[in-house]
Structures are given as C-alpha cells and as structure tokens.
Write a structure and sequence with these properties.
This protein is an alpha/beta fold. Helix content is 43%, strand content 23%. It has 13 helices and 14 strands. The strands form two sheets. Strands 6, 7, 8, 9, 10, 11, 12, 13 and 14 form a nine-stranded mixed beta sheet that branches. A five-stranded parallel beta sheet has the order 2-1-3-4-5, with helices on both faces. A hairpin with a 2-residue loop joins strand 13 and strand 14. Helix 2 packs parallel to helix 11. The longest helix is centred in the N-terminal third of the chain and has 19 residues. It is globular. About 2% of the residues have low confidence. The structure holds P-hydroxybenzoic acid.
Length: 393
C-alpha cells in the first residue's frame, strides 16, 4: 500500500517536472565544411547569442539546438539529415541552411512531417513556394538585385552580368537584367560560371574586352568573392573604368579585411551591413564582439539567423512552448519586428517571405577599416519582387 502510494507520487512528480521542463528541439542544418563552410558558424553563433539573451523569457521552456553539417551545396545530404532529425530526433522545427539546393531538397520533408522550417539564408525566390511549412527570415536575391538594376539603369548604359550557375545566380541575372533594361540600359552579356573554383582570370578578361560600363556579379558570399576582387584589380578592370556592382554577397562584412583596398568604391545593394549606425545594429554588433571577440564581425548570414531565432523565441512565448505546426505557421505569418538590426521587418502572410529595407552601400574606409557604408535607402519595405511579378501574370 505504502509502496504503491510512493510509486504513484513519484510518477506524478515526474510528469509535473517533465511538463515544466518542456523542451523545443530545433534541427539546425547548415554548412560547416565544403564550399563556404565558414558561413555555418555565423548562423549558429547568431542563434546561440539570441537564445542566451532571451532564454529567461521562455517560462522554463528549454530550447535544444541539434546541429548538423550539410557539407556545402549538397541536397541529398541535407534531405537525409532533415529526415533523420524529424523521424529519429523528433524535432519540433527545422532551421538554418545556407544553400538553395539544400533548402529545396528539404521542402518535402517539412511538408510530409508538418515540421515548420525557418530558412535563415538560402535566397532563391521560388524556395518558399515549395512547402507551406516554410518561412524565410533572410532575403531573396530578387530583393537586392532588382532595385540594383533600377538604380544602375540611371547611372550606366551597358552592363555585363556574371553569376554562379545555380538558383540564386539565375535569380540575380534575371532580376538585374529585367530592371536594368526596363530602365533603358542594355545587358551586353549574361555569363554563368561554375559554382566551385571558377577560372576568374579567363572570365574577367572577356569582360574587359567587352568594355561594359558596369559588371554585375553574384557569387556566394565569402572567399570566392575575395578571389574575384583580386583578379578584377590584377587584370585592371577598375583602371579600364568598369564599375563593379552586385548584391551585398560580393562584399560580405567579414571578408572586407581579406579583400583589401581593391574593394574600395564597390557598390552593392543589400539589407544588412555591420557598419549600419541604427541603434539596434550597434547593440547587435557590440553584443557579438563581447561574446565572440573584438575582432569578430557579424554579417548578413548572422542577421538572418538572429531574426530567425527571434521569430522562434516569439512563437515559443506566444504558444507557451506547444509548437503545434499549424498554429506555429499562423504565428510566423503575422510576425513583425520594427527594430531588427537591419531596420523594420515583417513576414508577408501571403508568401511567408520577409519584407525588409534595401540599402545602396559603398565600400569605404571608416576608422581605417573597410566598411559597407549605407549611402541611400532604395526601399523601406521591399517584398520579394519575383512573387509580386508572378501575381500580375
Ligand atoms: C543560396 O544558395 O541561396 C545562397 C548562397 C550564398 C549566398 C546567397 C544565397 O551568398
């Protein structure tokens, strides 16, 4: 009698403590190795820093991050990791992903398992149409390169487009060309380069021979952009009067010191610069340096993940830790943050894509260091232009 009472009490206590120590599991897939393997840690660090700052607001709910390396643009691996996280680890959410092909491959997993998927980088416009369980807190390449094309058409007559041959490159080429030609400019060539190790010298020599007023480049953020920059100046394209422009991926904040002075004067359009002087950004950069070291700088991958962590934390608070998939998606669709480090942002309930400002920036020296200085706001609440154009069709 006594024993069974104790057993019953123990069982009750166990259930009660389990309920109070509820855990939300996030299957976090990003690139820690392979092409752009340097970007994954920016994503993870941003999520961990946001969670650290906000864990006390979660009413005892714990967040567990199950991190996995997709090894770069590798859709089969990403799909397999997502399946394991969903089936074996029973994650409540999927999140992360630098590369478009990986996000595309994970879409059916999110749909079949009804697991909400927070995309923190991958930027090809079509991705979010592939599953109703996706929300994107990063960007689309249309959001940066369409306004870039509009702006460039007022400054230059001819442009040469050079992009990596995969989803976000194709989007950059399409968006830039459409806007540039609508504005009266002429795109003299559209060239696609392999994603891995393009022979820059050969491609850039052809650009030099074509003598365009500007060269628009998209390549994945990171070391590839530094290699491009060096070849651009070694071959004298800058001296030949060709202006290098592109989405902010080609002058990502953490690579600027490696690029050196050849990057000075490069003009880009993007939603995030670590050099932005908004108070919310200053606080973000300061917290980053305090946590990870004075020489460390967040970048646009970090801000996509920072706001991705914010949307997750806010959903946990609103739903008291019970992340029913459909209620979570409903919450995500109406989420807003007037005070992100990049400025005011919101999720478009129709497309589950982010609405955000886009800035024209120029690489300049600030306090002796290269920085993406925001010189003009090209739009305050830019929706993915590709989806807006689809609606009109
Ligand atoms: C993507 O694969 O969608 C991607 C990768 C790197 C970037 C931007 C987009 O810098």
């Amino acid at each position: 009698m006594r024993l069974s009472k104790i057993a019953a009490f123990t069982a009750f206590a166990l259930t009660a403590s389990l309920a109070s120590a509820q855990t939300v599991k996030i299957g976090f897939i990003t690139s820690y190795s392979g092409l752009n393997g340097n970007l994954g840690p920016y994503m993870e660090r941003a999520v961990r820093l946001y969670l650290k700052q906000h864990e006390k607001e979660l009413g005892g709910v714990k967040v567990e991050l199950l991190t996995r390396d997709d090894t770069g643009p590798n859709p089969d691996k990403a799909r397999q990791l997502a399946q394991e996280l969903v089936v074996r680890d029973k994650v409540n959410l999927l999140a992360g992903v630098i590369f478009t092909p990986n996000a595309m491959a994970m879409a059916p997993v999110a749909t079949e398992a009804k697991v909400p998927f927070v995309i923190m980088n991958a930027g090809t416009a079509v991705i979010t149409t592939r599953s109703p369980y996706m929300v994107r807190t990063s960007f689309t390449l249309w959001q940066s390169t369409y306004p870039l094309g509009q702006w460039a058409s007022k400054k230059f007559k001819t442009a040469y487009s050079l992009v990596s041959d995969f989803g976000p490159g194709h989007d950059s080429e399409d968006a830039f060309s459409k806007a540039f030609e609508e504005g009266g400019g002429k795109v003299v060539a559209k060239v696609r380069v392999p994603l891995q190790n393009p022979d820059w010298a050969a491609y850039l020599q052809r650009v030099k021979d074509a003598k365009p007023d500007c060269l628009m480049v998209f390549i994945p953020a990171g070391k590839t952009a530094t290699a491009l920059m060096k070849n651009f100046s070694d071959l004298g394209l800058d001296k030949a009067g060709i202006k290098l422009i592109g989405p902010g991926d080609i002058t990502t904040d953490e690579e600027l010191p490696n690029m050196g002075d050849v990057a000075l004067g490069v003009l880009t359009v993007h939603h995030y610069s670590a050099a932005a002087t908004r108070p919310a950004n200053k606080a973000f950069v300061e917290a980053w340096k305090k946590e990870y070291g004075q020489n460390e700088t967040p970048n646009f991958v970090a801000v996509g993940a920072w706001d991705g962590a914010a949307i997750i934390v806010d959903a946990i608070k609103a739903l008291k830790g019970n992340l029913d998939p459909d209620k979570t998606m409903e919450f995500f669709k109406h989420w807003k943050n007037p005070n992100s480090p990049r400025g005011p942002i919101a999720i478009d309930p129709e497309t589950r894509d982010i609405i955000q400002p886009e800035y024209l920036r120029e690489v300049k020296k600030v306090g002796g260091q290269l920085a993406n200085v925001e010189i003009e706001t090209l739009g305050t609440a830019v929706k993915d232009p590709w989806k807006e154009l689809q609606k009109k069709k």
